[in-house]
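Issue: copy button drops trailing tokens. Both records pasted manually instead:
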Amino acid sequence: MGRPSAARVYDYLLGGGHNFAADRELAERFARALPGSRDIARLNRAFLRRGVLFLIENGIRQFLDIGSGIPTVGNVHEIAQAVDPTIRVVYVDNEPVAVAHSQLLLEHNDRAAAVEADLVHPDGVLDHPAVHGLLDLDQPLGLLMVGVFHFVPPERAPLELLARYRERLAPGSYLALSHFTADTRPAEMAAMVEVMSNSRDPIHPRTRAEIAELFTGFELVNPGVVPTADWHPVAPADDVAGPEREQIYAGVGRKTATG
């Protein structure tokens, strides 16, 4: 509880109540280093909603949300099950407090679960009993990595890591991913990276080209890898006018039969 985590910092920036004093203090430092942080968080959450609805429209009825944080208002099971109550969702996070909160919130939902596992261990995630209990990896699945892959350092070989997930997905599965970048405000992003460097979740921004490369083996859905606000916006609230709209790139890709 005394050590801040990205999951709870994100919850605070979104206006949630599942965070502690250490998280709030770090979040305020984060916001000073990177002005517009609350808008950045809101735009990222709006992309999640639009991405989930897009996947449902394209036949997906099961979701694996890795790096999910705390599934409070507006998270995947609420969005998806409002459309189809039979949709199944498994949340994965490596932060014990976030997972404990999630399990409490989901205890009466037999089509959603939260497990503690780490993104950088694909087999540990995909072979977890709770994942197998709710999801069928032989059928198309929506793999969500929204606002989490920037926590993967270069030494973890990000492309190879994502390839291991892709290889386990059935053809017709989708990847929805968003990721911090320093392309537009390098000085501010460098300050934010410094703020997060002593937390349990250091951040590693990547360029648009590097983020697009993460979709290797997936067929990118139009408009490709773009700022979150530019990915299938549907309402004025999905955008802002300031530079913060371009701090996170997002995209959705579909695994083909040969992917």
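Record 2 (pasted manually too):
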Amino acid sequence: MINIEYLIDRIKLILIQPKLAWETIGKEQINRKDFLLSYVLPLVLIPSIASFIGYGLIGMGSYFKVASLSWGLHQAILAFVGAFTGVFVSAFCIHKLAATFNTELSFTNAIKLVAYSYTPIWLAGVFYILPSLSILGLIAGIYSLYILYIGFVPITKVSEEKKTSYFILSLILVIGVSILATFLIGVVLLSAGLATY
């Protein structure tokens, strides 16, 4: 069950007071399934629905409209599956690297770290309603990296000396695997007949 008031309060805390948010989040025990359904799913629906509307109904282009339902569906599925894949792949990489940096991190806590960090990106997904504004998502992406960096010590319990190395190596792995995953999802969708431009 989604608690809208809690969801809004947590989003505000993450966005406005990330350091305080991580102190609170670091002490919380979560049920992975409940967390994915009550926090991740509602936020992932924002870019997914906005992508369908933007690319499927509104379209883009300066002189002519380029839009189709199949393109909108392609983009919506890519946004939805890509978001969940991104959370699990990123969490898996960060979880597996923990031992290298002399710390222990459960997969559930890694999911928590990644998902809360992705909050600005998912919220900025609303810009996909007007595809020409989707570039604004880059600003949200930079802020997401900042939130992830701040959360590294409270969640992973890594030492301050190893924090930056752990973060950079995790980031390199996450970006590489995410690009590959997005490419593969796109290929599957195209082979299923969902066209793109």
